[in-house]
Write the structure tokens for this entry.
Amino acid sequence: MAAAVATVASTPASRARRLPAHPLSASTAAPSLVRLAGSSRRLRRAMRVSAAAEDADALPGPGAGDLEMVPAGLLEDLPLPEGTQLGIGGLAFQGDMGGGFAPGGGDGGGNKMLDRGINTAIVLGASTYALTKLLTVDQDYWHGWTIFEILRYMPEHNWSAYEEALKTNPVLAKMMISGVVYSLGDWIAQCYEGKPIFEFDRTRMFRSGLVGFMLHGSLSHYYYSFCESLFPFKDWWAVPVKVAFDQTAWSALWNSIYFITLGFLRWESPSTIFSELKSTFFPMLTAGWKLWPFAHLITYGVVPLEQRLLWVDCVELIWVTILSTYSNEKSEARISDGASISEDSEDTSR
């Protein structure tokens, strides 16, 4: 049997290239040769194939120390040893026979790890900075204080520092608070949408925080003053009137400002922005009615004018999550639909 296959391998009619022999011992080659050769019927077929295919390549197989080449046409009928798979263009070995590489590759995993590292650094850095500022508000007076005294006076003195900032520069203080709240709200929205906690979209979070800083803090400062001048009444019925005005005129205006500004920051066209705003205007407005009327009973009935934005920003953590989800769902759906239409048009053109 071995002599016959060797004769096939050396037949001039095959004219196949000889590949380097597999580094296996002769004792291992004999059983491999038996498995490769199989029955006499398969051997005769191998002889016919090798005689007909003048330029056929020869592929090494297990036991190639004695069997110098195997005609490529015989591969699909030969029983393969355990741990060997027949792939496109040849044999792929598994287990100890390996040494190859998986398809694909690239640096996608490296980029993902880099993004995750940057996001982790941002979260830990911001958290550390905020906690440090809160815990060290009294550091100039710590001489002789105990830990209990530091923790006891920390909330009261942080509140005093906030009130002092409101007196010194109220607009800037409220802008900074709104910027932080809108960034956190978008981060919460992304986590709610299913993204891991440290794999959020930094650009999206930055856009939301920028809108909160540049627009919400300043506009809300002037709005609450305007609302008090518009409804200066101190009677009980003035509270539901202010809530109704807030949840119609002001909510419609602010939701539109937020949506339009985010659209321009995403470099979307005006027609696209207004089309998406038209489809989400009433859903966003009615979604707010499930939350804000109850919160604003406290806003206009209990909280002093200068402290209203702080209370509202605490509730905004929930509302910004809803706003951000509405805005980005429309944008991502439009991008996905555009990609699908593009693929369909390419398939049609083919």
About this structure: Residues 1-40, 52-76, 81-106 have pLDDT under 50 and may be disordered. Residues 169-337 form one domain.
